[in-house]
Amino acid sequence: MGRAVEDLIAILELEQLEVNLFRGVSPEEDRQRVFGGQVASQALVAAGRTVDRDRPVHSLHAYFLRPGDPRVPIVYEVDRIRDGRTFTTRRVVAIQHGRAIFNLQASFQIVEEGPEHQYPMPEAPDPETLPTIRERLEPHLSEFPADFVDWIKRDRPIDTRSSRPPRWLDPEPGQRDAEQLVWFRADGALPDDPLLHACVVAYASDLTLLDTAVLAHARSWDDDRFQMASLDHAMWFHRPFRADEWLLYHQKSPSAVGARGLGEGFIYTQEGALAVMVIQEGLIRPVVPDWRDA
């Protein structure tokens, strides 16, 4: 297991302060705000800690309320809304500096049988044939500032491999459809804990989805002509999966309007099973008056 994966597992090991209170920390990285996938995955850990293990998570709905401060711990307060015969519902509020920065509602269900169907998995190149982010960057090292190169080349807990070059290597606007295929997996073996695997996928699901909504507009995820931030996030867990095995993330953006972009994602196992669905809306507010020409 790589160091980056160990660090991710460590930040998902929340400290229990009281029966329904948990505390999480952020990794020691140079960030201005906490990564949204981190808050969502930690909140799901907190919710799952209060639910019987025979009830896996089947859905979550969350709102990002304020930027998180990576310098201080985050307190997660769990509200045990309902424990039914087959469904369990939890609400989690993430708190920093005395204010809510994020809230999540998650539902857990005992495993049941029923009718089945799914969208078919789209055709995609084998993930092992695709270059890593580092490998894509190597021929272009001289084109980027040193701090960006260092950031790209650092170890990451999630190995992501896109079927196309990232936007920062193909920056011209208006040349792409708002759709992308990205393979991902934890960059190392994970323990056999279904809740942990769900939380790692929740973490990874926020890495690239908002990018899809700006593919036809922004030059890159860090385009300084736009203010970008996740607003809300919803996930449905359909079929079993392992987060340390390749998963295909088919991402599309059906709409961008009102300085908001909507992204939808379908996560498939390598065998073609639709494992998870994701919907996210994010802020893509222009901050440069002539952003179309800038």
What is the averaged pLDDT score? 91
Please count the beta strands (DSSP E, at least 2 residues each): 12
| DSSP strand content | 35-45%
Give the quaternary arrangement of the chains.
Answer: single chain
Name of the level-1 CATH class of the largest domain = Alpha Beta
Order of helices and strands: HEEHEEEEHHEEHHEEEE
Radius of gyration, whole Å: 19 Å
CATH topology of the largest domain: Thiol Ester Dehydrase, Chain A
Shape estimate = globular
Total number of helices: 6
- At CATH level 2, the architecture of the largest domain is Roll
Overall description:
The protein has 6 helices and 12 strands. It is α+β, with helices and mostly antiparallel strands and 294 residues long. Helix 2 runs antiparallel to helix 5 (194-205). The chain is globular, with a radius of gyration of 19 Å. The protein folds into 2 domains: 1-111, Thiol Ester Dehydrase, Chain A; 131-294, Thiol Ester Dehydrase, Chain A (Roll).
Condensed summary:
This protein has helices spanning 3-11, 36-48, 133-137, 146-153, 194-205, 209-214, and strands at residues 15-18, 21-24, 57-64, 74-83, 87-96, 99-109, 158-162, 179-186, 226-237, 247-257, 260-269, 274-286. The protein is of the alpha+beta class.
